[in-house]
Structure formats: structure tokens, C-alpha cells
Amino acid sequence: MNHKELQSKVIDTALGYVGMQEIKGNLGWTSESFEAKMESVGWKPTHAWCAYFSELVWSEVYDAHGVSSELDDLFSGSATKTYRQFEGSGWNVGTVPVPGSVVIWRLVKGGKPSWKGHAGILIDFNDAYMTTVEGNTNADGSREGEVVAKKRRKYHFKVNNGLELVGFIYPPGIEPHVPFLDKEEGDEFREWVNNYRPQTAKQLDLDKRGSWFNSFITRAWEMLGDVYDDK
Question: CA-CA distance, 30 to 11, in Å (whole number)?
């Protein structure tokens, strides 16, 4: 399989686990086969399991095809530690959504980030929301729940209380083509195009404000990125 096919398989694998039900207290699952799989990636009774679930999905796809032997070393039972380890290894991570990525959040209380976090698999996205499959969640979207569930979440990179998006761990061989780290950088480019290349902005229907990763801004960057970098 090529990287695109494996990326699609990650999504299908994650969706296939939706509905797996926990035995309350992180003590296991009603499915013995699922519990055995979670134990194979390091989960132990009472441990929070969202990051282990993400590891399971990636491992089932990538280990089976020999894409990466690093995964066991890079994943952790801690979502925030998992992100740090992937980032520190030189793996491609970032803030632009890519389907099949591992999504990492951290818990913020009173404006102070904690070591606690949450993880899931990105299934799809649009300008305002992303669709994920997450372990250890519930109907309210908690980081401590009882089921594998499909969720719809906004992009919250700055919060005072709750789950703050840290970023995405990209699937092997897959990465975004837009170089902006956030909406602020994207809007700066959008405004530059509208001010200095108004005909191109009109041709592409590129507004001064909007998504930093959709097809409109991607096409504009392909046409004008080199000029913008040299400005």
C-alpha cells in the first residue's frame, strides 16, 4: 500500500472501533478481543486509554505494513508526552489538520496548562470543525469517559478552561501543503494578496479573512508563495 492508501486505512480502522464500551473505572472493556489489543500496546487496568487507543489504530495499520518501527517508542499512555516525543524525534507535527493524524489536546485550568491531555484520530475537517474518533470519551466530549466515539470539535488553540488543541501528529509520508501555523499567519497572507495582487484575489475568490488551510488559500500560496516569501 502507498501512503495515501494507509492514511485511508487509519480512518477506516478508527471508525471500526466506534462503540467499544469501557468497564467503568478504566478496568477494561466489554469486548475481550478489544481489551487484548489494548493490552498489546501497553494499556494496564485503571490507566486512562485515549492515547493507547490512538496507538492501537496506528500500530494496526503501520506495523502490519512495515512503515515505521518507531511507533512503540514514540507513543505513551500520556497524550501530551506522546506529542513531545514525536516532535522531539523530528516526526512531522503541526497545527494544520490532515486526516489520519493523531490529534493531541492538553487540559487547561484557569489559564494554566497541565500535563493531562487527550488524544484521538482525525477523520475529516472543514474550516470551523473537525471530526474525530476518540477513546475514553463521552457524549459531552470529556477526556475521561467510557466509550470509543465519533466526535465533532472546534479548533480551540487557546482556552482558559477545558481542552486546548496542541496539534496533529501527521501520518507517515503525509503532511499539509500550507505553511501557515495558525489563522493569524493565514490572514496576513490573505490580506497581502488582496492588497498587492487584487486581480489574483478576485480570480481565486480569496477573502481577506478566512481559513488558513482550505483550498482557496492553498491555491493562492501555490501561485504566490515564492513572491510572498521574498517580499
Answer: 23
User: In the chain, which residue ranges form alpha helices assigned H by DSSP?
Assistant: 3-16, 32-40, 50-62, 71-74, 79-88, 183-196, 198-204, 215-229
Tell me the pTM. Answer: 0.87
Q: Domain count for the chain, please give it.
A: 2
Distance CA 92, CA 89 (A): 9
Q: Are 113 and 106 in contact (CB under 8 A)?
A: yes
* 176 located within any domain: no
Alpha-helical (H) ranges within 48-182 are: 50-62, 71-74, 79-88
The residues facing 124 across adjacent strands are: 131
Q: Tens of pLDDT along 55-99?
A: 999 999 998 887 766 888 999 999 999 999 999 999 999 989 999
DSSP letter at 21? B
Q: Burial-class residue 33 by CB neighbours within 10 Å (0-12, 13-18, 19+).
A: exposed
Provide the residue range defining the domain that includes 152: 3-169
Q: What is the pLDDT of residues 191-206, one digit of tens each?
A: 999 999 999 999 999 9
For the chain, how many residues are written? Answer: 231
DSSP 99: T
CA-CA-CA-CA torsion sign (59, 12, 104, 183): positive
- Find the CATH number of the domain harbouring 37: 3.90.1720.10
